[in-house]
Write a structure and sequence with these properties.
It is a single chain. The protein has 15 helices and nine strands. Mean pLDDT is 87; it is low at 316-333. The two termini are 38 Å apart. It has a five-stranded parallel sheet with strand order 2-1-3-7-9. A two-stranded antiparallel ribbon has the order 4-8. A two-stranded antiparallel ribbon has the order 5-6. It has helices spanning 3-10, 15-28, 36-45, 61-66, 74-82, 95-108, 137-146, 156-160, 176-179, 196-209, 222-225, 236-241, 251-254, 273-276, 300-303, and strands at 51-55, 84-87, 114-118, 121-122, 131-132, 135-136, 150-154, 173-174, 186-189. It is of the alpha/beta class and 333 residues long. The longest helix is centred in the N-terminal third of the chain and has 14 residues, at 15-28. The protein folds into three domains: 1-45, no CATH class; 48-225, 3-Layer(aba) Sandwich (Rossmann fold), CATH 3.40.50.700; 227-333, Cytochrome-c3 hydrogenase, C-terminal domain (Cytochrome-c3 Hydrogenase, Chain A, domain 2, Irregular), CATH 4.10.480.10. Bound molecules: iron/sulfur cluster and FE3-S4 cluster.
Length: 333
C-alpha cells in the first residue's frame, strides 16, 4: 500500500471514492475513461513531488480556494501527502524558522520541486512594495523559481498582475512570466481565484505522464481554458432565442434567462467552470444568476471594469495601452 492510500484511509476515504476521484480527474483532463487505472496507479505509486507555494501581492483567495472544503477533500490530501513542503500562509513555522524550511527544501530538491506562485510581483522602486522577511518578492521568486523543475502561477495576479496591476498600477505589479522572462517552464492557471480542481488536475497529469498538459498561447492548460464559457453555458439556449435578463430580479432573471445584457463576459472568456463548478461541485457564477466577469482572461480588471455593462456597449482589447494587451505568461502552444 502506498503512502497516499494510507493517508486517504486515515482521512476516511475508501478505495471506491478514490477511484471516483481518479475518474473525475480524467474527465477534467478531457482524457478517455480508459486512463482511470493509469491515473490511479500513478497516484498510489508516485515518487514524492516536492512543492513550494510562494505568496506575494494578493488577497490569498487562491489559498482560500485551496482550503475551500469544510472537511479534508481528496484534492487536499493529495497535495499535502505527495507534495506541500512550504506554504507561507498555511505552515506552522514563522519568521526565521520558516525561511530555513524554504531554503532547506530548495537545496535538498534543487531541479526537482514545483514552485507555485500566488500573487503579483511588484517591480517599481526596486520591488519594495512586497517583501518577505526583508527580501523582495522579485528576488525570492528569482531564487526559488530559478531552481525549480517548473513554476505554476495560480490566480490572475500571478499570471498577469491581476488587480494589483490594474491602472494606474502604482507598484509596477506584473505576473510571473513578465517578472522572469527567462523561466524555462511556466504553467498559468488564471482566475480570480483559480479553481483548485484545475491545479490538482495539472499535478495529476504531471504525476501520470511526467510532463505538463498542452498549453495555449497564454500558458494556460487547454483542458481547462480551451473552451468558451458561452459554448458550455446552461443559459445559452436563451441567448440564441434572444431572451435576456434586463433588470436584476425581473421575470427573465427568475426564469434563468441569459445574462448577456447584464454584462456577462462569457462570450469571450475561456474556462471550464460550467463543468468543474465551485465549492465542491455546488454551482458556478452564471448558475447562481450573476454574469461571468471574465476572470480568466488577460487584464480582465482593466478590460471589463464596467462589470455590469453589456459587451456590445464596452470596448475591447484595443482600448488598452499596447503594454497591457493580452500579456499573460508564455506557453508552448
Ligand atoms: Fe453566454 Fe453569459 Fe448568456 Fe451564458 S449567461 S449564454 S455565458 S452570455
Ligand atoms: Fe471566472 Fe467567469 Fe468562471 S468570472 S469563475 S470564468 S464564470
Amino acid at each position: 500500500m502506498g503512502k497516499l492510500d494510507q493517508e486517504l484511509l486515515r482521512g476516511g476515504i475508501n478505495r471506491r471514492q478514490f477511484l471516483e476521484f481518479c475518474g473525475a480527474m480524467v474527465a477534467t483532463l478531457a482524457l478517455p475513461a480508459r486512463y482511470v487505472p493509469r491515473v490511479a496507479e500513478a497516484l498510489t505509486t508516485a515518487t514524492r513531488l516536492p512543492l513550494v507555494w510562494l505568496e506575494f501581492q494578493d488577497c490569498a483567495g487562491d489559498t482560500e480556494s485551496f482550503l475551500r472544503a469544510s472537511q479534508p477533500s481528496i484534492d487536499e490530501l493529495l497535495l499535502e501527502t505527495i507534495s506541500l513542503d512550504y506554504h507561507e500562509t498555511l505552515m506552522v513555522a514563522a519568521g526565521a524558522h520558516a525561511g530555513e524550511n524554504l531554503w532547506t527544501t530548495i537545496d535538498q530538491y534543487s531541479g526537482k520541486y514545483i514552485c507555485i506562485v500566488e500573487g503579483a510581483i511588484p517591480t517599481a522602486d526596486g520591488g519594495i512594495y512586497c517583501t518577505v522577511r526583508g527580501r523582495t518578492a522579485l528576488s525570492m521568486a528569482q531564487a526559488v523559481c530559478g531552481q525549480a523543475r517548473a513554476t505554476i502561477a495560480v490566480g490572475s495576479c500571478a499570471c498577469d498582475g491581476g488587480i494589483a496591476a490594474a491602472a494606474p498600477n502604482p507598484t509596477g505589479a506584473v505576473g510571473v512570466g513578465e517578472a522572469m522572462p527567462g523561466l524555462s517552464e511556466l504553467v498559468c492557471l488564471p482566475g480570480c481565484p483559480a479553481n483548485v480542481v484545475n491545479l490538482t488536475a495539472t499535478l495529476v497529469y504531471l504525476l501520470t505522464f511526467d510532463e505538463f498538459p498542452s498549453l495555449d498561447q497564454y500558458g494556460r492548460p487547454r483542458f481547462a481554458y480551451g473552451q468558451l464559457i458561452h459554448d458550455q453555458c446552461e443559459r445559452r439556449k436563451f441567448y440564441d432565442q434572444g431572451r435576456f435578463v434586463r433588470e436584476w430580479g425581473d421575470q427573465g432573471h427568475q426564469r434563468g434567462w441569459c445574462l448577456y445584457k447584464m454584462g456577462c463576459k462569457g462570450p469571450e472568456t475561456h474556462h471550464n467552470c460550467p463543468s468543474v463548478l465551485w465549492n465542491q461541485g455546488t454551482s458556478w457564477p452564471v448558475g447562481v444568476g450573476h454574469g461571468c466577469i471574465g476572470c480568466t482572461e488577460p487584464n480582465f480588471w482593466d478590460r471589463h471594469s464596467s462589470l455590469y455593462q453589456a459587451m456590445e456597449d464596452t470596448g475591447s482589447d484595443e482600448d488598452l495601452p499596447a503594454s497591457k494587451r493580452g500579456g499573460r505568461g508564455r506557453g508552448r502552444g
